[in-house]
Amino acid sequence: MTDTLPPCPECSSAYTYEMGALLICPECGHEWSPASSEAEGTPAEAGVIRDAVGNVLADGDTVTVIKTLKVKGSPSGIKAGTKVRNIRLVDGVDGHDIDCKVEGFGPMQLKSSVVKKA
């Protein structure tokens, strides 16, 4: 056990405590592992968007969808293995941080957690 625990990444509370392998904030209820707080690194790295396997994404990259996605209004979804070219990284809504054009579906936003860098 360390002498000083890091503050809560959600609300910056200094009253965090350890429970097993997790750190817990009593004020907001956020739970996280100490390894993930070390992996977040410096604030300059906080804006980096990573794919499902941890590769850093950049504008213009080509990515592959790793799981079949349902698309509202479409009888078939985007199948796993679909390549998406020339992505743009955006501050999207609800975790959708990739703006792209998927062939056969048109423009849409994807979550970086469902793609991997090709």
Write up this protein.
Helix content is 6%, strand content 24%. The protein has 118 residues and is mainly beta. The protein folds into two domains: 1-40, N-terminal domain of TfIIb, CATH 2.20.25; 62-117, Roll (SH3 type barrels). The protein is elongated and about 55 Å long. The termini are far apart. The model has no long low-confidence stretch (mean pLDDT 84).
Secondary structure category: mainly beta
The total of beta strands comes to: 9
Average of per-residue pLDDT values: 84
Q: Can you tell me the number of structural domains?
A: 2
Strand content: 15-25%
CATH class annotation of the largest domain:
Mainly Beta
Going across the biggest sheet, name each strand in turn.
1-2-3
CATH architecture descriptor of the largest domain: Roll
Bulk shape: elongated
Q: The biggest beta sheet, please?
A: 3 strands, antiparallel
CATH superfamily of the largest domain: SH3 Domains
What does the radius of gyration come to?
Answer: 18 Å
Terminal residue distance: 41 Å
Q: Keywords, please?
A:
YjdM_C, 118 residues, 3-stranded antiparallel sheet, N-terminal domain of TfIIb, 2 domains, 6% helix, SH3 type barrels, elongated, hydrolase activity, mainly beta, 1 helix
